[in-house]
Amino acid sequence: MTPERVAQADRVDSSALQPRDGAARPLSKRGFNSAGTWLLAALPIALLAGLLVWILSSGPADSLRGTNLPPVERLVFDRVSLGPQGFDISVLNDGPDDVTIAQIVVDDAFWSFTADRGTTLPHLAKTNLRVPYPWVHGETHVLRIVTASGVTFDHTIPVAVETPKPSIASLGTFALIGLYVGVLPVAIGLLWFPLVGRLGDRGLDFVLALTIGLLGFLLIDSAREALEAAAAVPGSYQGVVVAVFAAGAAYLAIEAFGQWLRRSRQDAKAAGAPGVVLALMVAIGIGLHNFGEGLAIGSAFVLGEAALGTLLIVGFTLHNTTEGLAIVAPLARNQPQGTRPAVGTLVMLGLVGGVPTIAGAWLGGFAYSPVWSVIFLALGVGAIAQVSAQILGQVAGDRPILRYLVSGPVMAGLAAGFALMYVTGTLLG
Fold it and tell me: What is the pLDDT of residues 208-259, one digit of tens each?
């Protein structure tokens, strides 16, 4: 058969498959609105539900484990507040079996207590324990919970200070801390823009590489903090999984946001748009990182670690000044010759990078949650990773990434950025 006849036969066969008016469509082309389709989708789910009910009701795991073994108990101190009336302790049952709280020991002495949701906790249940103990300001106190089976769980308060409660004064105090730590240092760093704008190509390569070094240090530091916070989360909440998912979600979200910004600025008035877009993305990534810093400061004071909170304030203030340089560096690289960004643009970038510190201090000080700490720290990891990749790709241009990285100014900038963050970071202990 000639090729012309084969092609003609194929056209005839394909036309024969097309449904005529009023004719039934092929099964694979039918919609998903029919009752039969929904029934087929629901049948496996119903069977799975029945299987789970049978497993839980018959208890094969219990029969294999036996009845003489002690229960598996894991009690987690979720939050400890100090007030004029004593300790307010929030605990969570992170184990698979019920836990019954029998006694509370404070500094080697048994104390009475009340529980607002009972003393027997099933899996993932919480209760608040109130202990009328006359704690001493500035002293160290050790709390111990004894279960009905004799298992003990300890929590140490290094430096006892009264837990701040939401009020106008406390809100203002944490806002000032966020201002000192986040907003003002970033704004001071933005003042380097006129100097960066006067640099030549090699100088800009150095500064942009320094920016990548700064962000690389922040990326590693944020990842470490996120993993440490994930380790402190109750095991049932899967802290590491939450951290990885949040970091990936932040990476994709910042990428999508950057693409939307670029599309929205494709007009003649936005000649310097690429630099503004990239600077804004850097500011968002740094803002998420600073949100995590605010969480750390607020939670340190709430958990009674006042000395640590003060140290964090001093260290983060020095640490964050370099972040303003990281924001303005891509802006200077893409700014048209002889032009400057509007003052309002610089103010906006500084606020985006610094104000989240205030929100983080509020959340950490008044509504501390280990799970939320993991989420926000991981969001900072994903955002910083995305903007670092964006800067690296943009400054390398048509050059291979490896050739760009091994050039003299770039290697010097990477080393300087990492060293600068390392030196300021040592103040954090």
Answer: 788 788 878 878 887 888 888 888 888 888 889 999 998 898 888 878 877 7
List the structure tokens of 414: 């990477």
Q: Is the pTM of this model over 0.90?
A: no
Residue type, 129: L
Outline where 141-272 has alpha helix (H): 168-178, 184-190, 193-197, 201-232, 239-264
Alpha-carbon distance 88 to 93, whole Å? 17
Nearest CA to 284 among 355, 214, 371, 358?
Answer: 355
User: Taking the alpha carbons of 40, 46, 48, 51 in that order, is the dihedral positive or negative?
Assistant: negative
- Dihedrals phi, psi of 199, to nearest 5 degrees: -80, 150
Q: What angle do CA 228, 230, 236 make, to 5 degrees?
A: 145
Instruction: Determine phi and psi for 230, rounding to 5 degrees.
Output: -65, -35
Nearest to 332 by CA among 291, 407, 278: 278
- pLDDT tens digits, 129-170: 999 999 998 889 999 999 998 999 999 988 787 877 777 887
Q: From CA 308, how far away is CA 429, in angstroms rounded?
A: 9
Give the residue extent of every domain in the chain: 75-157, 168-428
d(CA 396, CA 370): 39
Q: What 3-state class would DSSP assign to 304?
A: coil
Side chain identity, residue 11: R
Q: Tokens for 99?
A: 């836990």
Give the whole-angstrom CA distance, residue 285 versus residue 291: 10
Sheet (strand 114-115) strand order: 75-83, 86-93, 126-131, 114-115
Half-sphere exposure of 215 (CA within 13 A, CB side): 34
Alpha-carbon distance of 198 to 210, in angstroms, equals 16
CATH number of 75-157: 2.60.40
CA within 13 Å, CB half, 163: 22
- For residues 164, 165, 168, 171, the Cα torsion angle rounded to the nearest 10 degrees is 60
Integer Cα distance of 178 and 291 in angstroms: 9
